[in-house]
């Protein structure tokens, strides 16, 4: 390794949930307790994030960890504005009454918009420039899975352009950086998982586009 800052580390001894269990129960957790998360746990979650692959191992992702109560409160107000700006643009909704009763995804997302400032930790994920998504999101997924393994709820969220300048000013982020996502962390008020996803047969092809993937070759 040429860069002395890049080092090999052992995984934290307490990061031990079975990978399958973590993957199949890592859900958008938006109802979060305000209870503090130990700094050591947050550090281990961030360390797991750093283990992800990136193009040429350039590791462009940076994590701004917001724990200060006043900053969380002020960010929470901006997140609320951003979430409702997205609803205005995408669905034309203006208030909670506009959200269909059976749309639990948006119902819960609206709760997060009200409450995100009370999450004990909010992580902003950034890189210098807007072209690093491929190398940023693997680390985000590691972060989400590690949080799950520690019993910490999380949800990947993105902001609306309306608020970005004020978010950057609030945290004194240099203008040449790009905000990829915002992840509140907190112990869940409810329980985790299971996820509800398309089966692999609905999203996978075999050898030729459109040709179903099957497992019949296992029988040969
Ligand atoms: C790119 C991306 C953007 C998202 N943005 C938001 C968001 O702004 N607010 C929110 O509450 N959830 C957001 N989510 C969470 C998704 O709604 C959630 O992962 C999806 O509905 C699956 O939910 P589940 O894990 O509970 O099944 C986002 C997820 C992704 C991957």
Overview of this structure, please?
This protein is α+β, with helices and mostly antiparallel strands. The chain has one domain: NADH Oxidase. It is 39% helix and 14% strand. It has 7 helices and 6 strands; from the N terminus they run H-H-E-H-H-E-H-E-H-E-H-E-E. A 4-stranded antiparallel beta sheet has the order 1-2-4-3. A two-stranded antiparallel ribbon has the order 5-6. A hairpin with a 1-residue loop joins strand 5 and strand 6. Helix 3 runs antiparallel to helix 4 and helix 3 runs antiparallel to helix 6. The longest helix is centred in the middle third of the chain and has 22 residues. It binds flavin mononucleotide. The site of flavin mononucleotide (FMN) has 12 residues, from helix 4.
Reconstruct the topology from this structure.
Layout: H1 19-25, H2 39-50, E1 62-66, H3 69-90, H4 104-115, E2 121-127, H5 133-149, E3 153-154, H6 161-171, E4 178-186, H7 200-203, E5 205-206, E6 208-212
Antiparallel strand pairs: 1-2, 2-4, 3-4, 5-6
Helix pairs in contact: 1-5, 2-5, 3-4, 3-6
